[in-house]
Specification:
Immunoglobulin-like; five-stranded antiparallel sheet; four-stranded antiparallel sheet; 11 strands
């Protein structure tokens, strides 16, 4: 049940962020579809994605958001974000790999995130990542772009 609540909370948070994004595009020129899929590798290492509603601890879940430009003109300089749900840990896998990460949802930097500890730069654990952001420079008219991140159910 914990996995289900995490999936539901992620969907709510993402829908809320898309609502804000849609408000910026008041003409409804941008549509977003979010999917949550279990990531399954077979013996040969081939990855498949299966729809998921509930997931036990240790399950890898991919959240994928597909943004579609629904008008006849390009959208330029679009920033999209996906939150990492509570009770989930980011795996470090993002598509496209150009994603920036944040531990506070406000300040973003290229991955891996770093901090100073005892005067030395060290990597911030993925468990502290809260949000990823992608900058889509150009979303052509009537085209789509997808972003995704993988998480593990805690």
């Amino acid at each position: 049940m914990k996995g289900f609540n995490s999936l539901r909370n992620a969907l709510i948070a993402t829908v809320a962020s898309v609502f804000l994004l849609s408000a910026a595009h008041a003409d409804d020129s941008l549509k977003m579809e979010l999917t949550a899929n279990k990531v399954v590798k077979n013996a040969e290492g081939k990855v498949t994605y299966l729809p998921v509603r509930t997931a036990p601890a240790g399950t890898v879940i991919q959240y994928k958001a597909t943004y579609t430009n629904t008008v006849k003109q390009n959208i330029n300089d679009l920033a999209v974000t996906l939150p990492i749900p509570a009770n989930m840990t980011f795996t470090g896998d993002a598509m496209p790999t150009t994603a920036q990460a944040s531990i506070d949802g406000k300040n973003y930097a290229n991955m891996p995130l770093m901090r100073k500890v005892d005067g030395k730069l060290v990597k911030i654990p993925f468990s502290e990542y809260r949000t990823l952001r992608w900058d889509i420079k150009l979303l052509p008219a009537n085209k789509s772009a997808a972003v995704a991140l993988n998480t593990i159910v805690d």
